[in-house]
Design brief:
Elements (H helix, E strand, L loop, with lengths): L5 E7 L10 E8 L7 E10 L2 H5 L20 E7 L11 E4 L12 H4 L14 E5 L3 E3 L6 H4 L5 H10 L11 E5 L3 H12 L3 E6 L5 H6 L4 E4 L6 H6 L8 E6 L6 H7 E9 L14 H4 L3 E4 L5 H14 L10 E2 L3 H9 L8 E3 L3
Length: about 350
């Protein structure tokens, strides 16, 4: 069977602040010839992140070059490899790495500027040529749809819980997650697999039962309990607070996270949700004697570690039941924009 020479691909051509009309589907986009370290991948599935929605609406504050093929997360099958490729082989199922140049920690300025679907062409295409350095083998226990969710949200959760080796989550720890986004859901799974106790916040009582099914011990509704930081802290043994807090809400919630953290605990700030609320002063970390850490997804090395843990613990990512087709990308974007999802929104690609 002859290898493909072209691909169908979505492209963010321009910015529209109130819709996704900047997304344009292109036919017969030429594929480059394989160089020594290149890999030709047939993309099977792509999952969405808030970042993917933010880029065509002009809300993304990091490196971006238009026009660009959107999407960072994907799983696919290797169709061919360059003559010097050693990390993957024909027939392997692989996942893409969010920042192509983030191979190991610490992250570098060059790695920060190498994000798929923003700075360089991403994954919303039927075929792609990628350097072997920005691919990892997918967990053998996951199908393509599940594996397509790992690139950003679960890897960010893994970095939050394991990125500081001296503070890595362990059995007996208490972990606080916020909301039902992809990072929080993955963090719940990783923390419970490690033997930690997880408390989650949400604004929806309807989602509380779903969170408990994932392993959450206590759920706090932050709309019903505005001072949720103290309420969550009171749930911990002796009221001493949490070992790990994944801070998703930004300025709107960091003050409550500071109330909930234990001495020497770690608050990991994730994402770039905007807020008009005043940021707590940096010196508040001293007042609470805690570590406040910002992260940007994770490295290839961490991705490989995470995938081994996923296979070992038999963890299956939470995927929204509504799968979208490649031609329905705008519908998928709008579905997630309207927050109708629970779990990762996935586009399944039929080649």
């Amino acid at each position: 069977m002859a290898l493909p020479t072209t691909s169908r691909a979505w492209s963010v051509r321009d910015i529209h602040s109130d819709n996704f009309d900047g997304l344009v589907l292109q036919e017969d986009v030429p594929l480059p010839k394989l160089c020594d370290y290149d890999v030709l991948v047939q993309v099977e599935a792509v999952s969405l992140n808030y970042r993917d929605l933010a880029i065509p609406r002009g809300l993304y504050p990091f490196a971006m070059n238009l026009p660009v093929v959107p999407g960072s997360d994907s799983a696919g099958v290797v169709l061919a490899v360059g003559p010097k490729v050693t990390r993957v082989s024909k027939g392997d199922r692989v996942c893409t790495l969010f920042n192509e140049l983030h191979q190991t920690n610490p992250i570098t300025p060059e790695a920060v500027g190498s994000g798929l679907g923003g700075a360089v062409d991403g994954t919303l295409r039927t075929y792609g040529v990628f350097g072997e350095h920005c691919l990892v083998k997918a967990p053998s226990s996951l199908n393509a749809v599940e594996a397509s969710t790992l690139t950003c949200a679960p890897l960010t959760a893994w970095n939050a819980l394991y990125g500081l080796q001296s503070k890595a989550v362990k059995a007996g720890d208490w972990v606080l997650t916020q909301g039902t986004g992809g990072v929080s859901l993955a963090a719940i799974q990783f923390a419970t697999a490690a033997g930690a106790t997880v408390v989650a916040t949400t604004s929806s009582n309807d989602k509380a039962e779903a969170l408990k099914k994932l392993g959450v011990t206590h759920v706090v509704n932050y709309k019903e309990t505005p001072n949720w930081g103290e309420a969550a802290r009171a749930l911990t043994p002796g009221g001493i607070g949490f070992d790990h807090i994944l801070e998703i809400g930004g300025a709107a919630s960091i003050a409550q996270s500071l109330k909930a953290i234990k001495l020497e605990g770690v608050i990991t700030i994730i994402g770039f949700l905007t807020s008009s609320e005043k940021q707590p002063p940096l010196m508040d970390a001293l007042n609470h004697l805690c570590i406040v850490r910002g992260i940007f997804v994770g490295s290839r090395q961490q991705f490989e570690e995470m995938n081994r843990a996923i296979d070992s613990a038999k963890i299956h990512p939470v995927v929204d039941p509504n799968l979208f087709s490649f031609d329905d990308i705008k519908k998928a974007y709008q579905y997630q924009w309207e927050r109708k999802h629970f779990g990762k929104v996935v586009i399944k690609i039929e080649n």
